[in-house]
């Protein structure tokens, strides 16, 4: 397994915050955007990196795409280090 995408995803505090938010419930991009001051394009970029690291998954509900944490067994092992990351 290549750990580089995981470390790249966790390196940014905004992406760690996205994971913390998604830990509570799946959200659409619009709902996630309400938590941040950056553009939708930036949020989409962060979500793409998190998907590449297999930390988040998507589910289409009608016309919206919802993001949620990947809670598979392998993902839980990768997600554990986040518990020790300080959040802004």
Describe this structure in words.
Helix content is 51%, strand content 16%. By secondary structure, it is an alpha+beta fold. It has a three-stranded antiparallel β-sheet. Helix 1 packs antiparallel against helix 4 (40-52). The longest helix has 13 residues, at 40-52.
Topology:
Elements: H1 4-11, H2 13-24, E1 27-28, H3 29-33, H4 40-52, E2 56-61, E3 64-69, H5 73-79
Antiparallel strand pairs: 1-3, 2-3
Helix pairs in contact: 1-4
List keywords for this structure.
16% strand, 51% helix, 88 residues
The number of helical segments is 5
Low-confidence regions:
none
User: H/E element string?
Assistant: HHEHHEEH
Q: Any idea what the radius of gyration is? A: 12 Å
Roughly what fraction of the amino acids lie in strands? 15-25%
Largest sheet: 3 strands, antiparallel
**Head-to-tail CA distance between termini:** 30 Å
Mean pLDDT: 84
Oligomer: single chain
- Beta strand count: 3
Strand order of the largest sheet: 1-3-2
The percent of residues in helical segments reads 40-55%
State the secondary-structure class.
Answer: alpha+beta
- From the spread of the alpha carbons, the general shape counts as globular
Quick overview:
The chain has helices at residues 4-11, 13-24, 29-33, 40-52, 73-79; strands at residues 27-28, 56-61, 64-69.
């Amino acid at each position: 397994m290549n750990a580089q995408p995981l470390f790249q995803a966790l390196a940014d505090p905004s992406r760690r915050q996205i994971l913390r938010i998604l830990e509570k419930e799946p959200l659409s991009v619009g709902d996630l955007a309400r938590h941040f001051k950056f553009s939708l394009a930036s949020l989409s970029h962060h979500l793409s990196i998190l998907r590449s690291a297999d930390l988040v998954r998507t589910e289409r509900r009608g016309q919206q795409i919802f993001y949620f944490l990947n809670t598979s067994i392998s993902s839980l092992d990768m997600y554990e280090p986040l518990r020790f990351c300080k959040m802004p």
